[in-house]
Amino acid sequence: MTEASQYSDTIIIAGRFTTFVQPGVAIMIQNVNGTDHIALRQPASAEMFDRAGSDYRCRGAQLLDSASSVLDVSPEEMARTIAEAELESGKHPAHWDSSTCEFLILRLLRKEHGEIEREIRGLPTLAAALAERNESRPELTTISQLVEELTEELTVHIKEEEKNVFPVLLDVELAYLGELTASGIPKGVASILKKMSEDHRALGRTLGRLRHESNWFHSPIEADGKCEELYDRLALLYGAIHYDVHVEDDILFPRVAQMEAALLH
After folding, report:
1. Rounded to whole angstroms, how far apart are CA atoms 238 and 116?
2. What is the pLDDT of residue 239?
3. Got the DSSP string for 105-119?
4. What are the boundaries of each domain within the chain?
């Protein structure tokens, strides 16, 4: 079966190459764009970029060439894999440009925040038990300490966002849409956004240490079932946090900042 007949006549232009995919898949994997643009349009790509160690957030985005070289695959193969992963996941192309802040916040609450809270539930207990049972492996003790630290940071951060930050962001959007007087917007929105982004960077530093100690969440060859469970859950948690920060720092917060600037002028 030829490449063109195996897929459809919908084409993804990826810089120097072309990939055929089925209808409905976002036609946006371009090597002239960074991993941040790809992750925005094709959510299924985020997991692959995480495996490649590629930061798809705007601050650290790479070109597809760089991300694919880490996995020792060609950009063409990576583009094809992303397209196939999107088809298998059932995820539709993300149209963040037309999404309201209300939608983005509801998505964060029900998806990323839900996944994060689900993964950290019982995770410190599991990590501590494995560290105690495997005293000959000091990295498990370090991982256990980092999991405890990360869990505390996440619990405080998520509570702050859901209780104090998201309501303010919704008020900004309502005022921008004319549903709320500008005078009703809480003061210091820029400071709130800055504080949340600083918290994200602190979480990123803890995650980076955890990733390093766990060898990119690859469990040792001799690991038992419980140890493999820990590493698998750490990988899932990393992906959920990474995408949560991506949506907030690269999409939601800049949009709110633009709305507030428009209201003030």
Report:
1. 9
2. 87
3. HHHIIIIIHHHHHHH
4. 3-89, 97-264
